[in-house]
Hints:
Residues 13-81 form the HTH gntR-type domain. The protein is of the alpha/beta class.
Amino acid sequence: MTNWTPDLTGRDGPLYRIIADALADDIASATLPVGARLPTHRDLAFRLGVTVGTVTRAYAEAERRGLIGGEVGRGTFVQAPRPALPSPTSAAPLTGSYFTPGAPPVPPPGDGTVNMTTIRPAHALAGQALADTLTAIGASGQTAAFLGYGPHAGLPFHREAGAAWLQRQHRVNATAESVLLTTGAQNAMAVALAAVARPGDIVVTERLTNIGTKTLAANQGYHLEAVDIDEQGLTPEGFDSACRRLGPKALYLVPTIHNPTGVVMGADRRVEIAAIARRYGVIIIEDDVFGFMVPDARPIQTIAPDITLYVTSLSKSVSAGLRVGYVVAPPDLRPRVEAAIRALQYSAPSLTAEVASRWIQEGTADRIVAAQRAEDLARQHLARSILPPETVYGHPAAQHLWLVLPEPWRREDFATETRRRGVVVIGADAFAVGRTSAPHAVRVGLCMPGTRDETARGLRAIADSLQAPVSAMLSIV
């Protein structure tokens, strides 16, 4: 731990901000290098003659600016530069959510609430790399090529880089010709569905499914039908029955780290699902956005490439803000996918695709993924050390977990109780398709909080809520 004591002379403003400003200056001058461990809150408060609360607030302000980060059990460290979070005093409050009804509102920034509603990882390496890459693009003399309309399917170099990435990180059978660029995975799903279905057509999916898919189906007029799931996800019996009864145009599923339950479909089950789809002439839309976290999970696209539209993005692995997604399409469906891209967005933004493609080519993306995997595993380990093991479900590499509630808890009462304790989670009913009955469970996003300390605080509040049976019975009184 460093013996850092800031010089506070000649500075104006609130004391906590003066300390944060001094910290910023010492980092900028390399007095405090990246990786330096800062004094504890109590130690620095003693040196400066201020309260521990003032130092805590100063460190929080420095963390908001992207200067430092905390690690559970280790302390607070100077970190590589990353963009500052919105200031609680200047950011417009968020009063709602783009999610479907049933999802809780997103808490306003700075209110102290731990938001564990979404799965939005972010790593400091990406922020540092972005500045360098944008500078390199500016100096390349090629900027004009990224400011006009690009080809509907994407520029050739970007499609080549996408194919290389998907082969390397997702183990997909992809070529530059088979890869079409989209604006993130949500747009990739919209494009894939538009290529094979029309409003009113039936699309089958897991009875608990991605909220974004529900929103998309409601917006575009597709009729979602639920199929039973078990500990491996979609059941072959349920899928076969749905195909015989309903004649669906497509199957949408997340076989690797299912959202929301976090389970992974076994290899034999994938072969069986592909065979059923082929038997009934159903196109598979495989969402593999989490596939990079499970290297031994073989995508269904490699089993049945001629009937599968494979969709993924860099949002969970590299950067959500780049909004770079990919669709891998078989030859006979490529014209329809490209036509859907043209209708829905004309083309993906070439500038962010160029950033992503350079990162893929230079190995930057692989380094970010390695760091993200390590963070995901660490947060899962943290969760499983805090929460009762019998309540935690899902793959241990997932960026979220499925919390199955013990008696007498009901999902809506539990979400209310955790909100009272300063943590926001999503109840299972938000993921239920149609009138499907939802289990008494909640999804907990482990990578939404900015630090492991914040994640641990949220998990401890969830664990405390589980031990509050009186609150669980309030709705019955």
